[in-house]
Batch of 4 targets.
Target 1
Amino acid sequence: MSTNQRVLIFDTTMRDGEQSPGASMNRDEKIRIAKALEEMGVDIIEAGFPIASQGDFEAVQAVAKEIKTSIVCGLARAAKGDIDRAGEALKPAARKRIHTFLAVSDLHMRVKLQMTREAVLQAVTDSVTRARQYTDDVEWSGEDSTRADHDFLCRAVEAAINAGARTVNIPDTVGYTVPDEYHALIKMLKNRVPNIDKAVISVHCHNDLGLAVANSLAAVQAGARQVECTINGLGERAGNCAMEEVVMALRTRKDHMPYTTGIKTELITRNSHLVSTITGFPVQPNKAIVGANAFAHESGIHQDGMLKDASTYEIMTPESVGLRKSNLVMGKLSGSRAFRSKLEELGYKLGDNAVSDAFKRFKDLADKKREIFDEDIIALVDDSVVRENDRIKFVSLEIVCGTKIAKPTADLELEIDGVVKQTKATGDGPVDALFNAIKQLTTNTQHMQIYQVHAVTGGTDAQAEVMVRLEENGKTVQGQGADSDTLVASARAYVNALNKLLVKREKSEPAALRA
């Protein structure tokens, strides 16, 4: 396929995705995600917003040191300090990009920037010129492009390219546009901007109207050759264009959209699980491509068709996105070598310590659960691995409750900064008692917003996967935990959220993160 038909995938899970209320990633978690994205074949990885905080700067710098094949990108507003900070963070990168942005709609220029059009054009030129001092690979974004005056948008794009931008991003910042309108906008830019041939047109669509993927695909058909997206569609408000959806749409409908990407789609499901576990955002069951029901068939008519020919009701194979049919070959008699082999089959590459910890939890689970599914192993491994560097760790829990007990009591042990602490607490129910105990050992400044439980697999012995959302002084975090005991899973989820809250406390409030 010709170069002109190649669509670059720009992943912003660690930048725009982290702006989701409740999402927060520390340095080690960003490195894990970045390595997974690189293995997956992502072209550009936006690692963060270096000026936002010292923690974000260090995370971008760490990712820049680790990634060798993908381009590592840092976001910067059209300000000298932002651009210099991004340039400094990206110094170690083998391949680097600075992504600078400025609003171009009259609404944003008048209300937010309080700048004239001419001042904005000058700032576009100045910011791109300064970014070029650090790298030849500069991307410029016109924030709120889909609500901008077309004549002015053309002038801004032309100015950015003249100043040295080699990628120009036309974001639908507030998820306002619709496919035919967005297609026409990209076509208009290709026809009217005289130097547009010197840059790649990129698109960054938000999902406020549920059209982010449709708009991105329409833009590709109009000539855009870079799509900015996130794993699981993670992002602020209603989220961003979902990488897995846009990639599989291009792969599945080559008859209508003859374009290609460099994504190894067989890694999609694994990386969806990884991001879900790290951020604490569960994937809804009916989510396209990666939802639990995406390849499930309950209707008798559908099941009959599937038994005759899977293509009757499946337009892609489960294997194409990394799903394997669950089997029951693992059990309590399985050894560590077989367990390691199963992890490799599921796409995990873990160090000896991580394998040892996961194997211990697997054996504990096998003693309690008669049938071990691949989904069970995925849940416990993800739950174990992302906790490696937590300051607060779950140790043990005993709950006394029932109709003959006046007040449910939780006896809890946590390891906090290397020291094991124990307490007892009561509550209106077993979960309330548990969370009261956690608060006694940690802090009582957070407020519970959401508590959700769902089963990883079917059956009464299924592992529970719990999600909690905590809020403190306007900051929200989400945590996840998995265990065959729902209360233990709840403890793990709450502790996971607390660790994320510690990260949030260390980060300063970002100024203006929208792009």
Note: Residues 392-506 form a domain with the Double Stranded RNA Binding Domain fold (CATH 3.30.160.270).
Target 2
Amino acid sequence: MAHHSYFSSLQEQLADGRLDRREFVRYSALLGVSATAAYAVAGNIVGEDFAPKAVAQDMPVGGSMRIAMRVYVVNDPHTFSWVIDSNIARQVCGYLSRTGTDNVTRPDLLSGWEASDDLLTWTLNVREGVNWHDGRAFTAEDIAWNLNHVLNPETGSSVLGLMKGYMMNDAGDALWDANAIEIIDDNTVRLNTRSPNIAIAEHLFHYPLLIVDPADDGFFGVGSNGTGAFKLTEHVVGEKATLENANNATWHGEGPYLDRIEFIDLGDDPSAAIGAVASKQVHAVDQGDIVQLDAYKAMPHVEVNPANTAQTGVARVQADNPPFDDPRVRKAMRLAVDTPSILEAAHRGLGAPAEHHHVAPIHPDYAELPFMSRDVEAAKALLAEAGHPDGIEAEISCKKDPAWELLAVQAMVEQWKEAGINVSINVLPSDQFWEVWDKVPFGFTSWTHRPLGFMVLGLAYRSGVPWNESHYANAEFDAKLTQAEGIVDVDARREIMAELEIIMQEDGPIIQPLWRAIYNVSDTRVMGYGMHPTSYIFGENLAIAS
């Protein structure tokens, strides 16, 4: 297969030092070059083989693994609002692509993809030989149905936030062209896009874009059909979800090794997870609370698995709700906080202070701006200019758990007081918070990792998309975001990203205190349970020694 025409330019950028080797592999894979080939080419250029080495392991077969994780309603995968929901469904239903812990995106239910030179036409090749659990062949029609479903505004899927710029019309209420999603044959789907976008392959791994059986009309539950390694046999909200080995003869990956996976809901008290791990009632925890890190490290039978990520939390206002409808008020709230001290207070200094624009230093297209330091007097002046010389009163809603979120909110509330921004805190249990997270005028929302900087900007701040909880609408921002999405050259894209970051700092709807360093924990007998930067769990990789 001929490589994309831009592949040679990527090689030149790597050789010139304008692109590091891992970003070379990532962008090459996004353009349809196999990760194996990209690693090999990069190794020849830099004179070092740095491809991930497969570790030969004699994986034990059989047994059950119990993982402490919240168990929520999972009946509508295409509208999932959090990763933990997908960690149940992903064991049953697959994705078209998969982004690994090395941030390289590889085919999954696809065997590969090709992009046209102008990045407007993307050909998706179905992996042959994959069957649904009921024996029916997995085909291009299944893919097209799922893409049409997530892009239907009536579905309410956050996938729309990623794909709106290149798949939807100006109004955002329909595909931009009747052939935008085109079935070529049983094994081929073609995306005919409105504008170029380099990250389409990564969009296909956005966690609500699970490929569900069209016969289920988007519903998922006990007994649902899937292409994955497991089937869901039990699901009780707030208690437990059980998945059994599906014994799928056409399963396309390695494993599965376990007979059963049980997700156990221990509630919102992190001490319950500590006790369950200490007593070996569970084999793993999906994500450890930062305040419990030392306790886990002290357990001789526990392995702590860390990851540096673009996971974060933002105090976001609804930009159409007074007094937050004035950009001077929003900027004043940013200037009134000191992010390094909040990182220390809420996250023990683990991670990095944020800069109020939701693009992380680990993103390849991050543009470094002068750091937005605390300036209480400037904040007061902006409030006075906006007609609030005596300050403002507000209420922020946040979750009770994990502990770092409330700690971050409490630290910001204390700092806001000095600028005359008096904020009370409405603390909610997680299940209640997720019912209103996108409805409250002022709330603190955690956001997970995305591999590229512009991805979360599209999900959270593009006008009119389902996850735009802040009701932010800025035509200049939208246009520059669409422009950035179509630029392959990372240096050129970084120039546009700098403009987007400045818009967020000057006009945006968020106060962002920190970037998180995260970890999960597992019993030392557990195999295959690493920490994915987006907190994904892949049950087919797991095994447990007796």
Note: The mean pLDDT is 94.
Target 3
Amino acid sequence: MGKIFNVNADCHPDLHYMVDLKDRLGKIKKMVDAGQYFTINRARQYGKTTTLLALAEYLQKDYIVVSLDFQLFSAGTFKTENTFSLSFAKAFAKAWKEYNTSCPDVISQKLELLNTAVFEKKEDFGLQELFEHLCGLCRDSKSPVVLMIDETDSAADSPVFLDFLSQLRGYYIQRRRNPIFQSVILAGVYDIKNLKHRFVKNSERTYNSPWNIAADFLIDMNFSKEEIAGMLIQYEADYHTGMDIELIASLLYDYTSGYPFLVSKICKLIDEHVAESENAPDKSTAWTKTGFLESVSLLLTEKNTLFESLANKLTDYPELRNMLYSMLFTGKTIPYTPLNPAISIGEMFGFIKPQNDMIVIANRIFETLLYNLFLSDELLDNKMYDAALNDKNQFIQNGHLNMRMVLEKFVEHFDDLYGDQDQTFYEDDGRRYFLLYLRPIINGTGNYYIETQTRNKERTDIIVDYRGEQFVIELKLWRGNSYHTRGETQLLDYLDYYHLDKGYMLSFNFNKKKQIGVQEIILDGKILVEAVV
């Protein structure tokens, strides 16, 4: 059986198409060589487990690597110091032998002592005794020992785990006198560095972090365009589709910003679903821009664990939901302030990222997903959506989307329903109502995203993909003729960028004497369809 694109659990280079991790592993090894303790905290399905497994192999030449997974520990493990210490001792001894098959007699004896404590279920076996054993193993080991623990989120709420981190910190500080791990690497979604340990001092409750010794992990785990191209080269060597690797790699990066799960998922959809479908009878026709856009549409309509997790976080953290809603629908720009709780949560779960000292949605896929989620709350009771449902069949002609007709009908319905509303209504809701009108028309076949460079309170560019065709629609607030002319010039620039000959402009005009409607003009050899409501 040949390789596949994998989106479940960890990836193996002999089984799956993967990006080359050597550069990333080399950078992490430098942190290990420097004796740093750190946390790889990234959002879900970001390749953390794959990275740790690859790192364990990468380090084995120079280090004794002990790799644990807290997900394999039962819930009861973290209830008491004794149960945790015994479980950790058992897992540690087993992992040492698995990753390091030949052990000197002195190490074998010390591992046996650990197992003896486990088998006897010593009731007085706690963290202090556990670390005495660990310290002894590190002292007598022929090579420095690296401890890696995956899925630390499983223990994040446990006071015992905080005590365990405190022990690591204490031994780290004293490691010149008492040999301990060369490096400790924890992996999870939550930033363990910010967990606080409560203790009593001078009759007052105070807090400190038991993991404040950790170095910052600044290594980029997103796939670069070049790394994505390398993975596609592997695939092309097997199937000879004739794909334009540079084009497909660029599209994958532009839509996902290199989020590992999203890159692999889109590739998997192209390979296993788009190929041999009605629109793409073979792999050669699937690995095209049209096939790529079809896979994005499939992705945005599926239910997967990553999307479900993101949706749940909007319910769990109302402040995060409010911030994202303001960014998307009112064009609100928010400075990047990592100490802000909503920003910290959004960044930790992968919703947002810093860019030019501001926060932006992490990638186009997430942005469209968020728009769809927010709009879905209004679909049943929104008259613009109902109007689009009634109109939608007339907009598709010979398989092509008639965007001019979409604008004409939108202007007509919007004027009937909201023509007498005031300026505040338009500023906050105009864009939202256009997306509500657009969604049922392209739903299931096309998709849209917002051009982040132009989203603000006065202007938004919407890019619509429909069966391989792209439409650029500029949404803007009317600020007079000179501003309108500048908007036309900006739209022409975007048409050049997307290699299009026709563009669309939808202006929300507050002037009571305005003339609503749609007209078509020609500028610099390009057609501009301009609608005013």
Note: The chain has three domains: 22-208, 225-302, 382-533.
Target 4
Amino acid sequence: MNMHLQRAIPLTRLRILAALLAVVLAQLPLAAAPQGGPRVSARLSTGIAKLGAPVELVVTVEGTVDAQLGSLPAVPGLRIGPAPGASTSQTMQSRNGRMVVERRVTWRIPVRAEAIGDFEIPAFEVVVEGRRYPTSALDLRVREDLVGAELGIMQVEFQPTRIVAGQPFDLILTFGWDANLAGKINHADLSLPWWGKLLGTVEVSGTGRQLGSRPVTVNLNGRYQVEVEALGVQEVRGKPFEMFRLQKSYLATHAGTLELPTSHLEFGRMSQGGFFENPRPIEMYYVAAASSPLEVGTLPEASRPFEYTGAVGSIEAIAVADRRDVDLGDSIKLKVEWRGDGNLEFFDLPDLARLEGFEGFRSYGATDQLKERFARVSIFDLAPIDADVTEIPAIPLWVFDPETRAYELVETRPIPIRVRALTGSGLEDEGEVVPREDIRDIDATALGSGGTGGGGSGPVPMVPIGGSALGLMLAWGFVRKPLRRGLDPTAPLERRRRRALAALRKDLRQAESVGDAAAVAEARHAALCRFLGARTREDESAWVGRDPMDWRGRDGTHLEPAPARELADCLGGLERAAFGPEASAAPTRDDVLALAKSLTQGAL
């Protein structure tokens, strides 16, 4: 924590004690609500069903148990309901030293088709904590018969098959059809009811296509398209099959059972259609894939280190300094590259100011240059304040390894440095000289009045207005030096904080051209998190999934309930649009910018 002991204002001691108390209280494990506010989703147990086969409409609300179903829609040809009683669940687990309560309420509503055809179940409302939340529209295709299991293949698997909360995993879908049909197949449609609605997860950037693989576009859920890998002809069940693969990466957000609805592949031959005629199916085949549930375990509490910040997986770290021969007080940019199969995008960085071994440095925080599935680059800003320092110590990171089921310490290598003391600067002695007063202790007594200042330093001599430029430079140096120990207006964190709103405007403009509506919403969410991190002098990842009601600044500041709820709604709306089917309902660029402006005029 950066603060000054001020002699000229006696009340400062009380302020310091209050700030220290706020820090201590912030470290205590407290019960907290799930982050991001209530989340409502609806999905079908299958996207393609045989006439007369049972289908379930599953409605889930995460983040609360105070929820009621609205009126169910009426769809000709489908019998929906009646809705049974809801099932509720509540679990508790520790995240970054805080106990988090996770609540969920679920309805499983029967749906029975009375005719073949393609049906749309329109959106309907769920009342959550007195507010109305619409679900997304759902598609159901009903066929008289689902033949083709012997001509097609579809498999769904999780890798790894055993995970814990906070661990990333891959969902791999492989499918194809008899190679002897290759010349007759001109239509393929994946029916994936879980697409964009995989509860208990956050989608992360995955491995993508294998280098050199051929991309192929297939239909998805009857209305979208998705790119998959063409694997070529492979032998399956003793016969040649034309095979394809789709891979997605997710991170499990909490413990429990992760279930996938049944996936289907529709393949066959469609007519070409014409100017006055839409393409129609000539011969269609269907194959289904049901996956085993994925059990998500909890992190062990007994052996968890106090310094653990949420890292899970197999991670290694490499550190490089931009300079190793520096003057006392000079800034060193320490670049740390985290690599491996872990949740690199989501764990909190170590706080060097709190680590043993860094007493000879002042830490100005850290920022991330790059975050992705298998790589993260962080930049730590350090300044040596002790001339006896000979190296940048190893940076430790505690990681939970799911393979060994243990917390393991990952460290960078120490980096030798040479620190030169500046003669006459006051920094060549032991530690840093603390002046009696700094700019915030300027005596209010008029110059030349002969009065004494609050610090008892005696009368201040009158300085001629036409003083030399050298005197001005020396005066600035005197003012500049103590500022470096506090909130220096030119320090990286402060510059980043002042530029936050301008950077947000730029990021929001760039977000408009990143892709489809979901990608735009994801870019807006990332831009808003960067803005919040800059304004609160934190890493942007601290605002991913955070409940704004729980935020407390270093000086004890917090958001009032109204702006906190508005911010939670905005973040939640962007998350649902980015990782769910509600992209069209995402907060707009103007909404995000207006919210940011109001926050800068308040606690942020």
Note: The chain has four domains: 31-140, 146-298, 303-420, 492-600.
